[in-house]
Design goal:
heterotrimer, A mainly alpha (254), B mainly alpha (266), C alpha+beta (463), B: 266 residues, mainly alpha, 0% strand, globular, C: 463 residues, alpha+beta, 30 strands
């Protein structure tokens, strides 16, 4: 028996639990309740101003959240990876740790605080809470890439006459792009698709795309729910294609 | 000077990140129902948690048990399945390798909602009654890719001849696996297990869609239901604080051990 | 020491990876107690041969006999052989003792017996005090010794060694060569050794098997292989040599570098094109005009530690390499001669390229995966199978792959005194042989074209 055959059980498992379910999403998306082929579910989305509105808001929140996470997270990752500025492993652990704590718990804690200090729940608190939840997922992959980066590139650039500022923009930033890409993948899509979190952070005032998928499935509108999920799958396909260098991005995660 | 600003930035960010958790921890030592009103120091919430006597829902401990059980079973299966798969993928070549690697990435890229909805449709399609089994299967699905990704680097580091050397010295493939492959892959398997375990602990969306209607609650679904009813059960504050401390201690221990091992190796 | 009894026989063994043939009809035997070396450049099939013997691969065709019994389907762990792997493959989670005891423990040998045998074998490789050491803390040379000990402790019928010294530095390599040779003498086990280092092969072996491109080129003792290479590849791969185009005039008389020489070879026929090999240490300087066979001018002289290596230009325009203990200054005119014994004449493997193709139309022929323009062909029509002859000198090599009708890579090159003889491997896996004065390097990517007039086309009967 060849050792490459060892992948067979997993491939079978994945075929049943990953591929088949996604095919079912597509199947349901293009069926009406009696199982006939239809495009109605898709067209319904494009004429459903509620759903479209939610979709637009979701994208907006996701883009804003991703940008804020990059702006706040990149400098943090850079500082953490820089041995002259940070020698303590504990700070790194502190940044990673929230990733290990139940997101719902963290979200509720955040919402409770807003309540406590009397800030009304809404778009602002939603974004704030999202950044809270996802910032570690941006910092970690960028930190990982920066920490593994060969210092001799930086020294070579300096040797060739680059100022520290130039070194940063011409060497560090381009070389850390896989980490940023990976961070974007880990922040953007989950934001679009969250449910529960947005409800808690806005007191049900703002829904995100994930919520309407959940609502439709829960109220037994499987076909429309599947169609919405299918639309999301397409967006995922597009984002992953745009984020290029996927392989390196994934490696930045481990 | 530069160092000062850098440190200040880091600690400010950490303070913001941890503010909610710290407040929760502080208010876990008072009995008030709402956060923010201090009604005097008390460890009642902790006592309640351990005695199982809650003010309202007594099922919190059951939810914790379910969460741990599901996480343990699914992470264990994921570890075995993922390790075997990693060896297979490592030995695949060309297009086949790309295809299986791509397959392995799908659950990691897919947002929870998609994973949840698609598995829900699968279980409906298969007429599988939803409950523990379906939740565990779902958790294996999203946990295994992390095991694969943790084990493959160990395989790459491993001298490819080591397995053959064992066969050459008379070990059957099963003996070679047990005595040579597994000991060398163990660090990757363990970190894969831990990742799968925490992913499972952390999960809300997938469990939500696959737990069916038998009233199976995990910590996440419990909190969700609780919060929707309005306000958190106060005991949750104590529980959160405990989880927070346990994870912090675990991470610190792992880290200290790692740095020690690095020093030994250097 | 080396008995006549065969321990291993490979009979008509072939192996393919996908559609690439890595071993093509290998026939080989190993005598009991012999030190056999499989020698060749990387990709020649030597490691594949070893892995077929050790059982990590199964042959697609042919059989592998151990003491006359076919073992080609027996898994590696049931074969009485042990291997020393290229990068040792010691188990990093076990210490030195546990590594060596691994095989014995699997055989359930009693613990005290294991201990005795491990100690004995550690002594054999001079590593006695290292039992408890972590293998990763050992130097390359020490790891090597442990790897050898781990294999030997199981008392294999054959010890297989896959480039075991390749990862060591030069000094350590030399020392280990001597130790291996002594171990072989002392133990009397059969050794099958794989290397790409010809010097190592010459030093260690009783028998050398020279391989290239999945085929055995020559089997013989080190002296046979060195003194009487059967083809240009062997001559070039083993030691330094001058390989030259020549012409066998009649028995015992050969012409090359535009001079005639006496030689000892017979039976080639009269006026036959051949290749001639002369080792650089076999060209002698003389001051006696009566002895002088040809004259030359020294154009470079380099000290190589023991001898000097000189390049000379002959009066007839060829370049030759000479090794001698005495240096001659650059520019000196020298008189040279070669003993008849030292001229090795080889039959030419081929004298021109012959390709199989098919006519596309009157002025185009399709072959080698491309369509080439040719002169109008009378009597041939589209679709006719043809064979096309192209002289070595008539192949045009172009710097840019896209400028040629087809593209390829310089696969092998030989300097023949006044020109280079190249083997080009095309993108479609065909070989084209080229004589050229241009300088190319191995691995260069080239475009390939032929002038219309240089294609000699004749009808071919399809079998």
């Amino acid at each position: 028996m060849k050792r490459s055959h060892w992948s067979i059980p997993y491939v079978v498992f994945m075929a049943i639990f990953v591929v088949l379910p996604l095919l079912l999403v597509m199947l349901y998306a293009f069926q009406d309740e009696s199982g006939r082929f239809t495009l109605a579910n898709i067209t319904r989305f494009f004429s459903d101003s509620d759903a479209l509105g939610t979709f637009a808001v979701s994208l907006e929140v996701a883009i804003e959240n991703t940008l804020i996470c990059i702006l706040l997270g990149y400098p943090a990752a850079w500082i953490l990876a820089n041995k002259e500025l940070n020698r303590s492993a504990v700070t790194i652990i502190l940044f990673i740790m929230p990733m290990w704590i139940n997101a719902l718990m963290r979200t509720l804690a955040t919402a409770e605080i807003f309540n406590m200090i009397g800030i009304p729940l809404g778009k602002g608190t939603l974004l704030f809470g999202m950044v809270y939840d996802y910032l570690p997922f941006m910092i970690y992959p960028i930190y990982n890439v920066l920490a593994k980066m060969d210092r001799s590139y930086l020294e070579a650039a300096q040797d060739l006459g680059a100022t520290p500022w130039k070194v940063f923009w011409k060497i560090t930033v381009p070389l850390s792009m896989p980490g940023v890409t990976s961070g974007i993948l880990m922040v953007f899509m989950p934001t679009v698709s969250t449910f529960a979190i947005s409800e808690f952070l806005t007191n049900n005032k703002i829904k995100l795309f994930g919520t309407i998928i959940q609502e439709n499935i829960n109220s037994s509108m499987w076909n429309y729910g599947a169609a919405l999920a299918f639309i999301m799958l397409i967006i995922i396909g597009i984002t992953t294609m745009f984020s290029g260098e996927r392989k390196e991005a994934e490696e930045a995660l481990i | 000077m530069k160092k000062f600003f850098a440190q200040a930035y880091i600690w400010l960010l950490l303070l913001l990140l941890y503010a909610p958790l710290i407040l929760i921890a502080i208010f876990s030592f008072t009995e008030s129902r709402v956060l923010g009103s201090w009604t005097g120091f008390s460890t009642r919430l902790y006592a309640n948690l351990f005695s199982g006597q809650m003010q309202e829902s007594g099922s919190l401990l059951a939810a914790v048990e379910n969460t741990l059980l599901i996480a343990f079973v699914s992470a264990t299966v994921a570890m075995v399945l993922g390790t075997v798969a990693a060896v297979g993928i490592h030995n695949l070549q060309g297009r086949k390798k790309q295809a299986v690697t791509f397959l392995n990435n799908i659950p990691m890229i897919n947002p929870d909602v998609i994973t949840g909805v698609s598995l829900f449709l699968l279980f409906v399609f298969l007429h599988l009654s939803q409950g523990y089994l379906t939740v565990i299967l779902a958790h294996i699905t999203f946990g295994t890719p992390y095991v694969v990704l943790s084990v493959i680097p160990k395989l790459r580091q491993m001298n490819p001849n080591v397995y053959e050397a064992a066969l050459d010295l008379g070990a059957t493939p099963a003996q070679a696996l047990r005595k040579v492959l597994v000991p060398q892959l163990r660090p990757g398997m363990i970190s894969g297990f831990i990742l799968a375990f925490t992913m499972s602990l952390d999960d809300f969306a997938v469990t939500f869609f696959t737990r069916g209607t038998i009233g199976l609650e995990t910590l996440s679904t419990y909190i969700y239901a609780d919060a929707r009813k309005g306000g958190l059960t106060p005991e949750l504050r104590a529980l959160m604080t405990l989880i927070f401390l346990i994870i912090l201690i675990l991470l610190l221990i792992i880290n200290v051990r790692q740095t020690k091992m690095q020093k030994v190796n250097v | 020491m080396a008995g006549e009894e065969h321990i291993i026989d490979l009979k008509h063994v072939s192996k393919r990876f996908g559609d690439k043939v890595v071993l093509d009809d290998i026939n080989l035997y190993v005598r009991k107690g012999e030190f056999v070396t499989l020698l060749g450049p990387s990709g020649c099939g030597k490691t594949t041969t070893l892995r077929l013997i050790s059982g990590f691969l199964a042959p697609d065709e042919g059989e592998i006999l151990l003491d006359g019994k076919d073992i080609s389907r027996i898994p590696p762990y049931k074969r009485p052989f042990n291997t020393v792997f290229q990068r040792y493959a010691l188990f990093p989670h076990l210490d030195v003792y546990e590594n060596i005891a691994f095989g014995l423990k699997l055989q359930k040998v009693p613990e005290d017996e294991i201990e005795k045998r491990v100690k004995r074998v550690l002594k054999l490789v001079s590593m006695s005090d290292y039992e408890d050491r972590d293998v990763e803390s050992l130097s390359g040379g020490q790891q090597q010794r442990v790897a050898i000990a781990r294999a030997l402790v199981n008392q294999p019928k054959i010890l297989l060694l896959d480039e075991p010294l390749a990862a060591l530095d030069l000094k350590m390599r030399k020392d280990m060569q001597i130790e291996l040779k002594e171990m072989h003498k002392k133990l009397g086990i059969t050794f099958i050794y794989v290397t790409h280092d010809q010097e190592e092969a010459l030093t260690l072996s009783d028998t050398i098997v020279v391989m290239n491109e999945g085929k055995i080129q020559q089997i013989g003792t080190p002296t046979d292989i060195y003194n009487e290479p059967v083809n240009c590849f062997v001559a070039d791969f083993i030691g330094e040599s001058n390989i030259l185009k020549g012409r066998m005039l009649r028995d015992r008389r050969v012409a090359f570098i535009k001079h005639e020489f006496d030689c000892v070879d017979e039976g080639f026929g009269e006026d036959v094109p051949v290749d001639v090999v002369v080792r650089p240490e076999d060209i002698y300087f003389t001051t006696d005009p009566a002895k002088c066979q040809f004259k030359a001018t020294v154009n470079s002289c380099t000290f190589k530690g023991v001898h000097y290596e000189m390049w000379v230009d002959t009066d007839t325009g060829y370049e030759l390499m000479i090794q001698d203990y005495d240096p001659y200054e650059v520019g000196t005119e020298v008189m040279l001669y070669i003993d008849p014994d030292d001229i090795q004449v080889m039959r030419k493997e081929r004298t021109r390229n012959v390709f199989e193709g098919r006519m596309v139309d009157e002025t185009h022929v399709e072959m080698l995966g491309g369509s080439f323009e040719c002169l109008p062909q009378d009597g041939l029509s589209a679709g006719d199978p043809v064979s096309v002859e192209v002289r070595f000198e008539a192949v045009d090599l172009l710097d840019h792959q896209e400028d040629g009708v087809i593209a390829g890579e310089v696969h092998f090159l030989l300097y023949k005194g006044d020109h280079y003889h190249l083997t080009i491997l095309t993108d479609f896996g065909d070989h084209i042989w080229v004589d050229t004065n241009d300088i190319w390097d191995k691995g260069d990517l080239v475009g390939i074209n032929f002038a219309q007039k240089d294609l000699k086309i004749s009808k071919r009967n399809e079998a």
